[in-house]
Amino acid sequence: QEKRIFTVQGPYPIIRRLLRARGWVERKLPRTSRQLEQHCGDQNKQRLQTAPSNGGGKQREEEEEQHDEDPSGIHDLMSYLARDQLPNFIWTNFLEAVDHQLLQEDSVLNHYARVDAFTTKEGLCLSLQNLPWIEQADPNTFFPRCYRLGTMDDREAFIEDFRLTAARSLLKLALEEAGDTPVRTKQVPNSAKGACWHRSHISHPKHSTARPGSPLYPELVEEALEVCKQHLSVLQHEDIDRRTPSPCRTCIDWDRFLQQYYRVAHEGAGLVLTRQQRKQCQNLLQSLAEKLPQLDMEGKLNIWILKPGAESQGRGIICMTRLEEMLQLAWSCTAPSVQVGRWVVQKYVERLLTIFGTKFDIRQWFVVTDWKPLTVWFYQDCYLRFCSRPFSLHRLERARHLCNVSVQKWYKTSPDQDPRVPSDKIWSNKQFQEYLAQLGQADAWHQVLVPGMKAAILNTLRSARDRVRFRKGNFELYGADFVVGEDCQPWLLEINSCPTMSPSSAVTRRLCANVQRDTLCLVLDRKDNPTCSIGAFELIYKE
C-alpha cells in the first residue's frame, strides 16, 4: 500500500540493506534470474581471488555475505508476501537485465535508455564532435581530440591531425635541441640536404664548434615550418573561400617526413636550427597556442591511444606512436573481440600531472535525475586510481598508462615505484588536496579541477541529450574518468554507466558505500522531504 517494494539485480548488498532499513520489502527475482545473479557474483568473486591480492577480495566477500543476513527471517517472509507485487523501485547493473513487465507507470529505475550516446567511447566521440553545433562550447578545451576510425571522414581527419601534430612536435623538438647545440647562421651546402644527424654526433658549444660541411641541414624543420604556417592560416580563417589547400595536401612527401620525424622523436636523431628558424619556431608555436587549446598538453612525441569503441574496463586499449601501425591495427583481425572498424583513436595527454612520478586518474560520480529539464547532481567526493609502474612516455605498456582498477589488479608494484605511492593504488580526493597543498597549489582543486570537471560533464550531457531516451521518475548514477594536465586542468576520458561499486581499497569501500547511501537519499527520501540531507551531492545544473 505504501508502494515500498523493490528489486535489486546485481551485486549491490548496500542498496539492499539500506532499502530494508527504510522498511522497504524486496520482491525477489525469479529463480533463474537469482541463479544468474549468483553466478555473476561467483565469477566476480573468483576473478578477485585469482587477481593479485589488494585486500578487495575479502571486503567483497564480507559485503556479499551481508546481503543474506536475515537472522529473524522477517525479510524472507515479507518477500514471500510480495512475490506477486510489481516493484516500485528497481536498481540493476544493466538496463537490458530489466524485465519490462515488472515496470509500472510510476516505477523508479536507475537507468535511462540509449545513454550509449555518451557512455561508449564511440558515442562520446560523436556527441562531442557535434557539441559546437549545440552549445557555444569547444570540446577541445576539455576532451582530447578523438576520431572514429570506422568512418571515412573521421579516418581522413585523424590522418591529417597526426601529420599536423608531427609537424608541431618537430618544431618543439627542434627548439628543445637548440638549447644544447650551436645555432647555425651559415647555410649548409646543398649536398647535405635530407641528411639526418644523431645527437651523439652534435658538437656541444663548450667542447667544440661544428665542423664545416657537417650534415646539419635544417630541411625537415623548414618543411614543418611551412606546414604549420599554412595550418595557422586555416585557423585564422584566411581560407574562408576554401581555395587554400589543406596544410597536409602540400607537395611534402608525408611518408618520408613521418619516417624522419620518427627518427628524431623516438630514435634519438637530432636537429639543428638556423638562428632565423629558431625565432620562426618560437613565434609560430606561440601563435598556434592561441588557436589550439591542446597544443601544450599534446607534448612532442605524437602518442595516441587506440580504444575499442564499445568496450570497458580498459579492454583492448593500447598506446601507439606510428600512423601506419595504428591504421593497420584498426583494420586487422588481431583483436577478434572488436568489430572491424569500431576503434576510436584519441590524442594521449603527454604533459600530465603525476604523483610521485606515477600516472593517476580521477573517478568522479554524478547523477542525472531528469533530462527535460536537464538536472545534474555532482558528488563532492571522488577517488584517484594509480598505475603500478612509474610514468614514462618512452615505455608504453598498460601498467604505466591505464589506471583502471580492472587493469592494474593484474600487476604487482614494480621495484622502481616510489614507495609513497599507496600499496592499494587508491587515494581519496582529500589526500589529493593535501598533496596539491604541498606543491603550493592549495587552491587548484576548488578553483581549477572541480570547475573543469563540472563544465566537462555538463557540456557532454548537453551534446548527447537529444539522443537519450528518458523516462520521468528514473535516474542514473555515472562515473566520469579524468586525467590531470601539468597545469591542473582536467581532461575527460570517458563516462561510465553502472560504475563499479565493488571496493578495491579502504578508500573505495567507504566512498562507494557513501555514494550509494546518498543516491537513495537524493532519489527517494527527497521526494517526501525536500529539505532532507543528500550527503555529498550538489545540484550543479537545472535547466
From TrEMBL:
<keyword id="KW-0969">Cilium</keyword>
<dbReference type="GO" id="GO:0070736">
    <property type="term" value="F:protein-glycine ligase activity, initiating"/>
</dbReference>
<dbReference type="InterPro" id="IPR004344">
    <property type="entry name" value="TTL/TTLL_fam"/>
</dbReference>
<dbReference type="GO" id="GO:0015630">
    <property type="term" value="C:microtubule cytoskeleton"/>
</dbReference>
<dbReference type="GO" id="GO:0003341">
    <property type="term" value="P:cilium movement"/>
</dbReference>
<keyword id="KW-0206">Cytoskeleton</keyword>
<keyword id="KW-0067">ATP-binding</keyword>
<keyword id="KW-0966">Cell projection</keyword>
<protein>
    <submittedName>
        <fullName>TTLL3 monoglycylase</fullName>
    </submittedName>
</protein>
<keyword id="KW-0282">Flagellum</keyword>
<dbReference type="GO" id="GO:0060271">
    <property type="term" value="P:cilium assembly"/>
</dbReference>
<keyword id="KW-0547">Nucleotide-binding</keyword>
<keyword id="KW-0436">Ligase</keyword>
<dbReference type="GO" id="GO:0005524">
    <property type="term" value="F:ATP binding"/>
</dbReference>
<feature type="region of interest" description="Disordered">
    <location>
        <begin position="33"/>
        <end position="74"/>
    </location>
</feature>
<dbReference type="GO" id="GO:0005930">
    <property type="term" value="C:axoneme"/>
</dbReference>
<dbReference type="InterPro" id="IPR051437">
    <property type="entry name" value="TTLL_monoglycylase"/>
</dbReference>
<keyword id="KW-0963">Cytoplasm</keyword>
<feature type="compositionally biased region" description="Basic and acidic residues">
    <location>
        <begin position="33"/>
        <end position="45"/>
    </location>
</feature>
<dbReference type="Pfam" id="PF03133">
    <property type="entry name" value="TTL"/>
</dbReference>
